Amino acid sequence: MRTARLRRCASLTAVTLLCALAALASTTSAAIAATDTDGTSGERDASAVADDDRALAERYAPVVVVRTQPEPCGDGEPYLPIDVDAIFGHPDVVLLGPSGERIVAPTADDLAGRGEGWHVDFPGNAVRPGCDFERFADSLDAAPTVYARVVADTTADDEPVLALQYWLFYVYNDWNDRHEGDWEMIQLLFDAPDAATALTRSPTTVAFAQHEGAELSDWDDGAVQLRDATRPLVFAAEGSHASYFRADQWFGKSAQSGFGCDDTSPPSTEVEPAVVLLDDADLPPWLTFEGRWGERRPSFNNGPTGPNTKEQWTEPQRWVDEGGRTGAVALPAGGSNVTDAFCSVTEFGSKIMFRALDQPFGVALVGVLIVLGTVVLVRRTRWSPVVLPPSDEPRAGGQILRTAWRVLRTRPTRFARLGLLIPVAGIAAAVLQAVLFAVTDLGPLSRVLGRDSVFGGLLATTIGAATLLPAGAIVTTAAMAAVHRQDDATSGVADRLGLGRFDHERWSAVRAQLLISVALVVGAITFVLLAPVLWWQARSAVAVPAALDGATPWARSAELTRGHRIRAFGITWLAVGIGAVVPLAVGLAVLLASSASFVVVNLIAGLIGLLTAPLAAVVTQLQYDDLVARSRLAVTTVSTVPDGEP
């Protein structure tokens, strides 16, 4: 009995097992059937993700704004972001290895997996480019292109975040750190785990790469200019291709590329690159290349490494957290000349540096000759004794400098009050510019006269010149009058400012100084007229103090400087150096040695200029006194020679 019951239970268990297996088989068959009809579930998900990534990349595709280049090899931006594939197979491109390997016209597969010792070499000299790289870029005939990449990451609090990156490749970087090849990028961050979610909301943060680190902005704070409501305008700086939110002139600085001026000012051209989506599961071979995309050179003239070697490639959120900053430093209009001269000084210094890298012995020889010439000039002049005015004694160049400094020390408050007029004029210029560009509604004229237009920039410069040049002329003539006339009147507003009495001679001197200043500006702008303007300025070196003396300024200056033109020219430009270069040099030193803002730098330079501007005027006045003394001495010598003697 018991045995029979056990057999019946075993039979029931077997039947139950068979039923379960049949049900499982039925479910599996249904799943297989569904798969055969619709495709695999995994493949469907991957396709949907790719579609979402592409839709996101196309929606926020950037518009690149470059400075217009009116003619080939001229001013403006000649390089556009291109498709990297255009350089592969080109007969002038060479892939070089660490052991002397040389692959001409390399393909993308030739770059795959190559390490740090390899580099791509384009035709041309990286430090002396001429127009070679521009011609090479034109020969590629490549369409403007950006590479989009969607990558998931997490915040410091382990919250999901999605990074949408756009990578741009340029053939050449023509900035202060000239080098072949240039990779740039911008990045948008979304509070989303994937592209499908990101398509339902707006970005939270925008990051534009600039030399070292990035400039950050919230998407909705208005800093980023948009096309079609979603496409950011990327203002690419001329030469460096650093990315900015708007058109202006900017202070660029990094440990790798040095410092200089980034220019995104108008006129500009908008470029809409094609979007190539990068799939991390199927990257092109060249994205595994870890060498340099440009000629290997010392220091910052080295070609850059590619996107896959950058921190933001693997850790986009951390790159923003650690390297991001809010607000690039724009070069302000108006103020002292520190910011006005910054671009010119750094550009000139860069040219000297590039020449030194290319021709080190020649540059070293020129440097040695300059030092020796300076030593000879210093030793040839006479520095003692100090002869205070009024005096009829001739003075050597060294005596003029020491005497001018002694004069300044005797009445520092008087001369400092004089110098105050220049920063006050700078503030007035800044206020006028602010009223014009920030307060006044120009309406339809904003495209022509707005701050981002060509005429707007010219208008801002004109406002600055119209206030600063007259202020400088008034300060200069007042300082000269304080020495020449011992002008110490104490009544009236002008006297309280230290300006002294304004009469016919004073206004004549102001007009003469203004004319000299305008002529020098025109000469510097046109360059063609610079040589004749400098020759005329040597003849007119003491025209302003001559006008104060009641003489016809131009004729009297030409008479006194005859036979002394080189000396007069040298002392005049020494005075210019004291008045303008010293504040600039101190301001630039503070700028480079600290994190001080341009406002602080301008303030420091302005305070130094309170004394150096009057000091330069005193030097010019003492030079006039010296030339008058020499003229009288020459007349006396001739009149005392007996008849019949030579």
From TrEMBL:
Keyword Plastid: no
Name this protein carries in UniProt: Unannotated protein
Biological source species: freshwater metagenome
Region described as Disordered: 294-314
Spans traversing the lipid bilayer: 361-378, 418-439, 459-483, 514-535, 571-592, 599-619
Claim: Transmembrane helix is one of the keywords in the record: yes
Keywords, comma-separated and alphabetical: Membrane, Transmembrane, Transmembrane helix
Polar residues bias spans: 299-314
